[in-house]
Design a protein that fits this description.
The structure holds 2 protein chains of 2 kinds. Chain A has 12 helices and 2 strands. By secondary structure, chain A is an all-alpha fold. By secondary structure, chain B is an alpha/beta fold. Classes of the chains: A mainly alpha, B alpha/beta. Chains A and B meet through helix 12 of A and strand 1, strand 2, helix 6, helix 7 and strand 3 of B.
């Protein structure tokens, strides 16, 4: 579960305020991230500005490297490119690495809400969240969905709040955790993969049993 | 030294090949319906040796109650790796404290979803599939495993020793024949690695399977198996044919043997007749004590309890359903499997010296003989073979004194069955006797255990 271990000890802003903000995410934040001389938006600069606005220090070069879009697909071996392409299709055209960066951009837009800026105390948590807290979600949810789909918007908002140790205003910690668990795409994906694997295994066993029942002559030394 | 070891290995291989040829190509050999093969692999041999040692070393008595540490450990693994157990055993159940809260399972569970019984880590390449004989219910498919089947060999050997018999297995000898007497069954011959390449054959006494009328006598006596396995029906045919064979023992399986037949077999073959209580689902459970009518629990790695119809354990001496946990079939881990066989458990020490508890008054596997219109005998196994081709949960078949038959079937829910097809198939085996067939979708539901008596006969049965 993506939020396992998060303690939502403080009350944050209203959920609706943040989901509305996400739905109003400017198209610029969904542009191609800049990497390998390509793309239009410099994610490291966006993150750097955000951390500063949240009361943090200027990020170091090695800290900013985390927000690079990764190597160009052209440099990958052919087989890797095929696999990546398949993953891209699942992610609505973005590679997992690319989707991660896009999701960081969308989350950066979210965290630039005036509530966080005014508080001015979330720079460290925000940096941890953006540098690794969205990785799992990025493997299963296309960044665009976190803007266009109401459920995924709510999930991203709740995930970000939880990682910052916050719960939506007016909710108890238990309510907030319960709702986040319900929306958890990573968990849903894990359960679905598990169910698919179990169904495949059951199918394989049924097929093997059909085949082996037909053989019947296997060594057995008495009637039972 | 190395050279002589190699030479001996080669000569053993040659001897094994010669034994196999002798079994398969003997002028009086029956028709072989399958190739048959010994599926024991090199690493199984060490495992089987170790299992054999444990059979002796780990034999100890137990009292009524919870299973041994090793069985509990086995359950803990099975409840995690087996889809069926994962879904049925609540995570809050702690062992051994909550032992009696573990749900029981029945053959219907195996029948309906055998694929859920196979653990996630079971190797499907080594899986075998057997059909039950259907003696105590409709025949079902049972996932099994080559190694678990091979474990019957050390168990038989152990029991033979309990009877003072020490068979000598060599690549030149024939270890055992499985004797059948059925209208149709799979027959095969092989040599067995665990028994040092000794021969084995499953033969069917049905006259249509042999080249001449005298062939069964000649084949069986000339191949001279050291011991036999078979059911009472087959052994009574062996008596009738007066096969001049001198086995050191005869294991009797599948259904209960009546005392009259046992006496006649002892007179004719002059060897111990060893009752062997075994189900395909569980593997061997017990063997008849050499000094009495009770069955000692056979392997050390199962836990046997006796339950009432509400799944509660009954006190020692009180009759209930024999329920088995454990075993060594990696494709079907059974936890509290209700066998449909009934008896009582006796934990008191036995004068024979085997410390394992005894099952007393075992019942549930009464042999049934049926007759065709011209008076020929029909084995219930043949009827099971026919009925298993239809999608039934269970059935009750009864032959009346006037030879007419009745059958009540319970089809698998929402599956249509062709009544006429069932009737015609049964009539083919029973010589066109009238058969009254009816469907009852709730057959067995009125009984606490859901258990029905699959075969009944009003005919006088000749021991």
């Amino acid at each position: 579960m993506a939020t396992l271990g998060c303690v939502m000890h403080s009350e944050g802003p209203l959920l609706e305020t943040l989901t509305r903000r996400l739905s109003e995410c400017p198209p610029d934040f969904l542009l191609e991230p800049f990497a390998m001389e390509k793309g239009e938006i410099h994610v490291d600069a966006v993150v750097s500005d955000l951390i500063r606005d949240l009361g943090g220090k200027r990020l170091m070069v090695h800290e900013l490297e985390i927000f690079g879009a990764g190597p160009s697909q052209k440099k990958q071996p052919a087989a890797v490119q095929v696999v990546k392409r398949l993953q891209d299709l699942k992610m609505g055209g973005a590679s997992p690495q690319n989707n991660r960066i896009r999701l960081i951009l969308v989350a950066s837009w979210l965290l630039h809400d005036s509530w966080f800026v005014t508080e001015g105390t979330f720079a460290r948590e925000a940096f941890v969240l953006l540098s690794k807290g969205l990785d799992l979600m990025a493997t299963v949810v296309p960044a665009e969905k976190c803007v266009s789909d109401p459920e995924r918007r709510e999930e991203l908002v709740r995930l970000c709040l939880a990682k910052l140790g916050l719960r939506p205003a007016g909710e108890t910690g238990l309510q907030a955790q319960d709702r986040l668990t319900t929306l958890d795409s990573v968990e849903r994906d894990r359960v679905m993969r598990k169910a698919r694997a179990a169904e495949q295994r059951a199918h394989d066993i049924r097929e093997a049993m059909k085949k082996k029942a037909a053989e019947e002559a296997a060594a057995k030394y008495n009637r039972e | 030294m190395k050279k002589s070891f190699q030479a001996s290995a080669i000569s053993d291989q040659r001897a094994r090949k010669l034994t196999l040829d002798r079994l398969r190509q003997h002028p009086h050999a029956p028709k072989w319906r399958a190739q048959g093969e010994d599926r024991v692999q090199a690493d199984d041999l060490a495992w089987l040796d170790s299992f054999s040692r444990q059979l002796t070393r780990s034999r100890k008595g137990w009292g009524p109650g919870k299973p041994s540490e090793s069985v509990l450990e086995w359950i803990e693994k099975a409840r995690v790796t087996t889809p069926y157990h994962r879904a049925r055993i609540p995570s809050h159940v702690r062992l051994p404290e909550d032992w009696h809260d573990l749900p029981t399972m029945t053959r219907e569970d195996v029948a309906l979803h055998p694929e859920h019984m196979v653990p996630d880590d079971a190797d499907l390449k080594r899986m075998l599939v057997y059909r039950t004989a259907g003696t105590t219910g409709h025949a079902i498919l049972v996932p099994h495993h080559a190694r678990a089947v091979a474990s019957y060999q050390p168990m038989m050997e152990h029991v033979l020793r309990r009877y003072g018999i020490r068979p000598r297995f060599t690549a030149q000898s024939v270890a055992c024949f499985l004797i059948c007497s059925q209208r149709q069954t799979v027959t095969w011959a092989a040599t067995l690695s665990y028994w040092k390449g000794a021969g084995f054959a499953k033969v069917n006494l049905n006259p249509s399977e042999w080249p001449t009328k005298e062939s069964p006598q000649k084949y069986i006596s000339e191949l001279a198996p050291q011991f036999l396995t078979g059911d009472p029906f087959s052994y009574s045919d062996l008596l009738r044919l007066e096969v001049p064979v001198r086995p050191s023992a005869m294991f009797t399986t599948a259904v209960a043997m009546r005392p009259g037949l046992k006496r006649r077999l002892v007179e004719q073959f002059a060897c111990p007749i060893i009752d062997w209580f075994s189900l395909i689902e569980t593997g061997p459970i017990g063997y008849a004590c050499p000094q009495g009518d009770a069955y000692h629990i056979m392997p050390h790695d199962i836990h046997v309890e006796v339950l009432d119809e509400n799944e509660h354990p009954v006190p020692p001496g009180v009759r209930g359903e024999i329920t088995v946990t454990g075993g060594r079939n990696p494709c079907l881990p059974l936890i509290r499997y209700r066998t449909r066989d009934w008896g009582t458990l006796d934990f008191t020490p036995c004068s024979c010296g085997d410390p394992m508890p005894r099952i007393i008054g075992l019942e549930g596997r009464t042999p049934m003989n049926f007759r065709t219109a011209d008076g020929s005998l029909v084995n219930s196994a043949d009827l099971s073979r026919i009925l298993r081709e239809f999608p039934l949960v269970q059935h009750e078949f009864r032959q009346k004194a006037d030879l007419t038959c009745e059958i009540t079937i319970r089809p698998i829910t929402s599956v249509a069955v062709d009544e006429e097809q069932i009737r015609t198939a049964l009539q083919k085996a029973l010589g066109n006797l009238p058969i009254e067939l009816r469907q009852d979708p709730e057959l067995g539901n009125e009984l606490h255990t859901g258990k029905v008596i699959s075969y009944q006969s009003e005919l006088m049965v000749n021991d």
